[in-house]
């Protein structure tokens, strides 16, 4: 019996049928994004720090894949977005990467879950600096140099045991940047030290081809319009990849927003699907080309095998 006939006799198909994909996308505007934490606590009893930890693990997973030189600097604001970045930084440190943290505000302005994660990072003794107005770019450059030095030091013991095949961190300036400065609540233009940090991130990407991973959405972007917040002329981080939580942000559907977000990954941070369905509209259509659609494990409203756009 030939192989095709044998396969048919045994009930085995030679080709797997294409999965039937459910094109459902949660679309979150600024108000819905703000309400997720409150409803998760009040109705479902989920502590906000649990959602933050889940978000941080997704960011760490993607940053790990993108950090070719094993060097990462997380730039963190004092809100929930910054807390996500701080938690991601410690996860990446635990994986053996050289990691540093830049704070966009003094430590005494951190509160709640972000304060908890800042204290953990301090006790772990990760390299940490506070950016000041007028010198934010220099602070970022100095920390990147320190992280680069740490990466070389981590490579030396391995070099001694592995010879020429060992990892040696190249001095090419391609430290990966995690943008965790501002989140979905921004509705006015950014100024001061935050604006300086955004410009410094974009400058490193232009000059040194540094990769940038944005947390939830690029800092400086208006969640609803997909444009620079406020007057529409302020600085916005230009990311290579945006790891966004629970659903697509409304502004991501606006043409041109992809120049800020880069590719978009929708991550499931444990928000109950009942909450999402009651809070935000569900769009049954193909997502923007920049969006990478993933398995159900990453978005509770998606089914079928992994596929992607862009």
**Looking at the structure, what is the overall shape?**
globular
Q: Which CATH C-level class is it? A: Alpha Beta
**Count of individual helical segments:** 9
Distance between the termini: 45 Å
The secondary-structure class comes to: alpha/beta
Count of folded domains? 1
Strand content: 5-15%
Main beta-sheet annotation:
8 strands, parallel
Low-confidence stretches: 15-22, 156-171, 294-310
By CATH, the topology is Rossmann fold
- One letter per element, helices H and strands E, the order comes to HEHHEHEHEHEHEEEHEHEE
How many E-type strands? 11
Mean pLDDT: 83
CATH architecture: 3-Layer(aba) Sandwich
Across the major sheet, the strand order is: 4-3-2-5-6-7-9-11
Q: If you had to describe this structure to a student in words, what would you say it looks like?
A:
With 310 residues, the protein is α/β, with parallel strands linked by helices. It has one domain: 3-Layer(aba) Sandwich (Rossmann fold). It has nine helices and eleven strands. An eight-stranded parallel sheet has the order 4-3-2-5-6-7-9-11, sandwiched between helices. A three-stranded mixed sheet has the order 8-1-10. The protein is globular and about 50 Å long.
Short description:
With 310 residues, this protein is of the alpha/beta class.
Task: Name its key features.
310 residues, alpha/beta, Rossmann fold, eight-stranded parallel beta sheet, three-stranded mixed beta sheet, 39% helix
